[in-house]
Amino acid sequence: MDLDQSDTNPAPQVKTKSIGEYLSSHLRQYGLLFALIAVMAFFQIVTDGTLLRAVNVTNLLLQNSYIIIMALGMLIVIVSGNIDLSVGSVMGFIGALAAVMIVNLDQSVPFTIITCLVVGGIIGAAQGYWVAYWKIPSFIVTLAGMLVFRGLSLWLLEGQSVGPFPKEFQLIATGFVPDIFPVSWGDSLANMLEIRRVKHVNILALSTGIVAAAMVIWIGLRQRAQNKLYGIEDEPRSFFIARNVIVAAALVFVMYKLSLFRGLPNVLITMGVLTLIYAFITETTTIGRRVYALGGNQKAAKLSGIKTERLTFLAFTNMGVLAAAAGLVFAARLNTATPKAGFALELDVIAAVFIGGASMAGGVGTIIGAVVGAFLMGVLNNGMSIMGIGIDYQQMIKGLVLLAAVIFDVYNKNKQG
Amino acid sequence: MALLSMQNISKTFPGVKALDNVNLDVEQGKIHAVVGENGAGKSTLMKVLSGVYPHGHYDGEILFEGEPVRFSGISDSERQGIIIIHQELALVPQLSIAENIFLGNECASSGIIDWRQTNRRTEELLAKVGLGEAPSTLVDNIGVGKQQLVEIAKALSKDVKLLILDEPTAALQENDSRKLLDLMLELKEQGVTSIIISHKLNEVRYVADSVTVIRDGMTVSNLDATGGLSEDDIVRDMVGRDMTHRFPEHVRSPGKVLLEVRDWNVWHPEHTERQVIKEASFNVRAGEVVGIAGLMGSGRTELAMSIFGRSYGRNISGSVRLNDNEIDVSTVDRAINAGISYVTEDRKTLGLVLDETIRFNTTLANLNDVSSGPVLNKNEETRVAERFREALAIRTPSVFQKTVNLSGGNQQKVVLAKWLFTSPEVLILDEPTRGIDVGAKYEIYTIINDLAAEGKGVVMISSEMPELLGMCDRIYVMNEGALVGELDAGDASQERIMSLIVNE
Ligand SMILES: Nc1ncnc2c1ncn2[C@@H]1O[C@H](COP(=O)(O)OP(=O)(O)OP(=O)(O)O)[C@@H](O)[C@H]1O
Ligand SMILES: [Mg+2]
């Protein structure tokens, strides 16, 4: 190749960006983080500190666990350029199935869990089949699914609530990881910190928080070093430090709060591990990359040798499995399956993903964004409930938050275009 | 008097100074050409002029008819009589010609459309631009050349003083281009001033009264074209050096047959009774560049896409052999794995994921080579993207730029990079130099020669005959879905190709 031809073609100069420019082109990510912090601060103040009490922090995580689990799958579905309206119904149906299997039919808990996850996968696959191979719009297919599975739960439960579940099953949602450190350590730490109300600090939770925070910082630093190596545009140092300090501090803080109550909830582990796995899949695997290509430009993706149909099919199958997992957590938490379980929950899940920055058109969105979006909604729900705001206002406020987030996105995009 | 005077225009995008104190003066009643390399800033300048980038989003001053103007949007500039026809056409395919022409500007009284008047005025306008179609014809059913004329009719419906055409002939066949240029000359007689952006310098010479050359966002020269301007003069200013040859030297010695397509038949995907490709048979030797000439709609793209993973058509039959072995090309990934790659003519809708970066797009068709198992190696991806950026001279601040922000020609290079990275045995190029500047064309030709020198086969579909004649060892001529002739480089000429097409 004749390279000196290009010598006379110098690349345009690259200007290093000012902090202002950087902020304006990354407003979305920071905006979300700030919004979460602001909303938390607001409710912390107006609820006289109830929001961040140890019990409530634990509750907040438990309450939102099933939303977050489903948001992981929904993010992928939405990035692929589709939507799944059936997840609330599927979740309710799986809860009902679990209840009927365990309570009415006396099946073992492990067998029930596996069956439920498989059934969830089959439901997702069945819907994905029509979307992927028959090109029927996902909106229609999953709207049908929403009605079908709502009806099926009613039928399965014969209109009744079924419960309670055995202890073993409840542990999925309400159990806590036992502290592996000696109890006496926790006691003396509580003494040392002079925390009066608490006799015992859960050291496992606290140390998990510290390790997680350290990991966040370590990964951040490594990424930054690599970016420098490859000349990738860098976050200004002050932003990098501020962001990492905030995230690390928040992790330690939340874990500290948990350690003052009953330690690490089982669900938190499930949720955390799933979030990490899905973040990894979407960001650094070929299949994740292909999903973004599919949502970004289906025709171009197809002409690049990507099996677009199979990918869509898999996205829905995965969504079904996660909806089933959420259904199990939900049923275990309520300790009963009701015909109304999961009603309208798909809207919370979808809202979380859009608040997290995903685009209706597909191809855009991140797992972390969706999780933070879900927490934002969760804090709003929780905070407003503590304040005793009626469900009517709650709905309105949530609706407006969603609208504001999306308007912000569009505004940002126009400004850059 | 100058109708338009743009003074010291600067425009910066994050990381890119697209325009740097550009001056442009356009005389009343003249045709003014703006030329420059890909990414020089031509389209950006026209977007500033037409209000796409509103006042306040650029520096500098615009005088129109002697008055300073500040547009806050495209409708603002249209009201003043400045009409732009963008690089990408903006017609609604499902609407009729008449509906498109008066879209947003309907002949209506109190909200009710007067169809009689609409059709009458459409007929007048179509007569003016020399398009013999009924006003009720759907835009979808006419070719790109005619669509371009509809765009101009639409502009004329708005009382145009300054008509801006951004690469109007890039997607046109030669005779359609000629028609369009003649129309511009005719409009000039009627007092319409035009600005044309084009990479086809022969056309610039044909219509332009004056030429402004832009390089790296700066005005390099203003040339007077009335006294006869040579292409070489323009090229020298464009690329900043003399370019004596348009095609790189090459000596080729094709080996044995590499790709052999036999009895290829394809039917239309929707109109199932229509056969689009009829008994096409052709071959490519190792180290050979084979051209496919033909008119627009003759089935060249359909032939290529139906071979490439059955991406077009139905009831496809025939055989494809590579190195004497029958290969499976029934899906795109099988075709790629077998060693065939296809560079689309339609980079925006079929070639790129526009919202993603250069790096993302470069590796998309060959993720296996930048991953271990299912895990991507992003650093390797960056290295690959950088390598192609350098080799193809893609103008961008970094490979992390979104492709939507690249100039048209640079987008084309990214698509090319994507397919070169699949290391194909046979590369099928569909209009590979559409919208590409002379210097970059030369680079792409060089790459094609290098591929041939490595013993690969190249199929080149092109509407630019000089390009086929300058690059190919053999040229097939296609007409109405059939390969109607085959010429060796030595015997081929523009006339012989045309006569093969016409004789059918
Ligand atoms: N929205 C944008 N964001 C960032 N950079 C942009 C944007 N639009 C254009 N650019 C950059 O500005 C420069 C000029 O682009 P422009 O489209 O004006 O080039 P051009 O002269 O029309 O090229 P071509 O002949 O390839 O169409 C290019 O480097 C391009 O990458
Ligand atoms: Mg352009």
Compact summary:
The complex is a heterodimer of chains A (417) and B (504). Chain A has 17 helices and no strands. Chain A is mainly alpha-helical and 417 residues long.
How much is the average pLDDT of chain A? 88
Number of helices of chain B: 17
**Portion in helices of chain B:** 25-40%
Top-tier CATH class of the largest domain in chain B: Alpha Beta
Low-confidence stretches of chain A: 1-15
CATH topology of the largest domain in chain A: ABC transporter involved in vitamin B12 uptake, BtuC
- Give me the count of strands of chain B: 24
Could you give a short account of the major beta sheet of chain A? none
Could you walk me through the main structural features you see in this protein, from its secondary elements to its overall organization?
The complex is a heterodimer of chains A (417) and B (504). Chain A has 417 residues and is an all-alpha fold. Chain A has 2 domains: 29-175 and 265-416, Orthogonal Bundle (ABC transporter involved in vitamin B12 uptake, BtuC); 177-264, no CATH class. Chain A is 74% helix and 0% strand. Residues 1-15 of chain A have low confidence and may be disordered. With 504 residues, chain B is an alpha/beta fold. Chain B folds into 3 domains: 2-239, Rossmann fold; 257-339 and 424-502, 3-Layer(aba) Sandwich (Rossmann fold), CATH 3.40.50; 353-423, no CATH class. Chain B is 33% helix and 28% strand. Chain B is built from 17 helices and 24 strands. Chain B has a 6-stranded mixed sheet with strand order 6-9-10-3-11-12, with helices on both faces. Chain B has a 6-stranded mixed sheet with strand order 18-21-22-15-23-24, sandwiched between helices. In chain B, helix 4 (115-129) crosses helix 5 (144-156). Chain B starts with a strand and ends with a helix. The model of chain B has no long low-confidence stretch (mean pLDDT 90). Bound molecules: adenosine-5'-triphosphate and magnesium ion. The site of adenosine-5'-triphosphate (ATP) has 19 residues of chain B, from strand 2, helix 1 and helix 14. Adenosine-5'-triphosphate (ATP) binds at residues 13, 16, 18, 36, 38-44, 395-396, 405-410 of chain B.
